[in-house]
Write the structure tokens for this entry.
Amino acid sequence: MSRAICKSILLSSSLTSTHLRLTPLRTAASRAPRMAADASSSSPSPSPSPSPSSAIDFLSLCHRLKTTKRAGWIRKEVQEPESIADHMYRMGLMALIASDIPGVNRERCMKMAIVHDIAEAIVGDITPSDGIPKEEKSRREREALKKMCELLGGGDRAKEINELWMEYEENSSMEAKVVKDFDKVEMILQALEYEKEQGKDLEEFFESTAGKFQTDVGKAWALEIASRRKKE
């Protein structure tokens, strides 16, 4: 009987030892898929922002918007005329201060205002007096925009710029209609200021926008500018 008890104890001890050796192996194996999943979930997702190199390349190209003067004012021999960037900046301010309009995203209007002439960094300020057909002007600007988006490195930011520009170009949303009105309002306000400061007759700029405003805010602001011009 003593031998049986000893044999039982030895067998039990052997099984326990085997269990202790195997258990860590099973635990490690069970943790492996989880560790792989955790590593996968913690890996950084692609950034929608451009690389520093692409960003600076893009911004350096946009410097031309600050140095390129608006062609219409040059043709009228305005002294120290505004640049393309000057024009877009004040349009952005217009979107910022305008009253809320149901169904219109003001933030999108601000973005659109600072993007709508961005292709002019490459093609320059093409005006009707240049005699270039509208379709050709659009083709050149679309090609320039594509190059600028590629320079930016593609991605979400480039896609957003392209979408904003296309939306404005095609006048396909209420935001586009508002910003197109701001484009005209900014031009006639600038014309009024040059008339006052330099004694210029810039009637043609007012005539070119007459009856073309699409929104209530555009019409109201244009009417205010016309009223002030009559008082001068």
